[in-house]
Amino acid sequence: KDAKAPSLLFGLNDQQQAAVNSTSPVTAVIAGPGTGKTKTLIARIAHLIQEEKVPASRITAVTFTNKAAQEMRQRLDVHFQGRRAAKNVTIGTFHSVCLELLGDVNILGDADALTLAHQVLQECGLKLSARKFLSLVSQRKNGVCTEHSPLTDSAYEAYEEKLAQYQVLDYDDILLCALALLRQGKETRTSFTHLLVDEFQDTNPLQFQLINAFSQQSKSLFVIGDPDQSIYGFRGAGAQCFERLAQERPDLETIYLSENYRSTPQILSCALPVIANNHEGVSPHLTAQRPAGAKVSFVRAGDEFQEALFIAKEINRMVGGIDMLDSQSLAGGKREFSRPMAFCDIAVLYRTHRQAQLLEKCLSIEGIPYVLTGREDFLCEPLIRGSVGFFRFLMNSGDLLSLYACLTEVMGLSQKQAEEVTDKFKKTGSFPQQTPPPAGMEKFLSLYEKFSQKANREKPQKLLEAWAQDTGLAEDPSLEKLINISVFYKELAPFLRALALGGEGDVHRSAARRYFSDAVSLATLHGAKGLEFPVVFLCGVKRGVLPFQLPDRESDLSEERRLFYVGMTRAQEELILLSPGTPSLFLDELPAQELSFEQAREWKEPSSGKQLSLF
Ligand code: ATP
Ligand code: MG
Predict the structure, then answer these.
(1) Higher-confidence residue: 461 or 104?
(2) Boundaries of each UvrD-like helicase ATP-binding domain copy (predicted)?
(3) Residues whose CB is under 5 A from ligand 2 (ion)?
(4) Are 513 and 481 in contact (CB under 8 A)?
(5) Integer Cα distance of 331 and 311 in angstroms
């Protein structure tokens, strides 16, 4: 036997080992947070390669975020001690795995989708917001039925025609096309025998069909998940996929794990009673393996600004970078910490993207490096669409929608002029020779030539910085943010792909134009799924935000509770819940004796003073 074999299962408990070794064609691992599901999945990949001698290229693992995919890849590399034995394993989100299957296609990003939606709505005279329209289209493509949908057939078809005209696929089409390809049984670019799916509880019906289609051609299907962490119900996903799998695959073997290795008993005793309310008061079976730690804190703050400031001051106190007295007098923090922390040990989580703004501001003021993961709305701004469009067209001259966006949004061509140029280019592959050329066209051509030469040679950050100079957009704050995203990428193509899928997944943005290896993580509860941090600040645990309340829709209380549960169970050692305003009704579900209460120090706006002047 391989000399490395013992290390593979080393430290795994019996149930985890059973999951790694399962020889059943379909295996499901159902277990709560922090029970080592993901760890087990990774060990199983290593086991397949090392023991079962499955070629790495025959293995595909699907996870829900790019960040999770990255981490999985890293952990495998560590396991194989950098020997890259797992290099050819395909690891990614449903979208990235399907894209790989499809080969070269044009993706309709979030921003472009909104533009097309606007056009369609205008043409059809439909009174809907573009976002609402797109979400109805998506529901339809995903086979989610909504009664009395205001989406008309003609508007839907008009949208589809536009996609065909520009030869682009929207996010759902990526999955639908991959499904069609698999069902035809055609030879695909990647064919694999082993499929592993993390966070299975969040697969929607379309993704379920994909898994099914994949598993028709494969030898082994391995899914892991936790019904209590299903948080994509609004997209038609749900824990019923476990039941459906059991029905469709009678050969299913199910394994349960119940030991929690992530969180202190204190954190679990707060999280479990909350989720019990989804099960008529019965908690899931989960026993803490970690030693006792600090009590969970509940901090009340006057408003969101004071909440954000408290967090920033506390982080500095934990990392030990600031005068203790000063921070105490400002923020009021008096909790004791078990050990000094690094910035990267700390996460700040929130329910909605909007909440990040004040946090970013306060962290910057306190000089705290951070990375933010999430959907970036600024990518929809015209100048950014046009700038990104320029580079997308540069890399792929079939992407006419991007050419059009660049000409209209950055180069200042009228819609009609831009259409003429794109039409000509589509038909002949060259740009029209007009005399005199429309203003802006000359500029475009010279930039096109200049950047064509260096697109493949220089890093995205360098390219964007040059672009900002050449177009006179250097002062634009959105372009600055775009540059802060680019620092995570070495090459243009993966950067552009991440941006294109950004509306669907998670783009990473640095606080500045540099990459910090030690930084606080900012993420939404959805974006934090599957991750863990020694310290978690969970903000905005207040009425209207968590559970989230839209004015026109009843919130799904059980799903919001699962989100809160996901958030709390990210913490390993310290969990700080914050409420700026009327506390959330979920706080009533916490056992009061397990909490330590605190009030964030009132921050009275001084008329002068160095802190305020920074604003
Ligand atoms: P989630 O539902 O949040 O995704 P999970 O079940 O996937 O959680 P993991 O992230 O795999 O849990 O593991 C949680 C933590 O517990 C990790 O730090 C992991 O290394 C640790 N862990 C898992 N199993 C063991 C074990 N048998 N012994 C020691 N530590 C373990
Ligand atoms: Mg996991």
Answers:
(1) 461
(2) 10-264
(3) 37-38, 530
(4) no
(5) 8
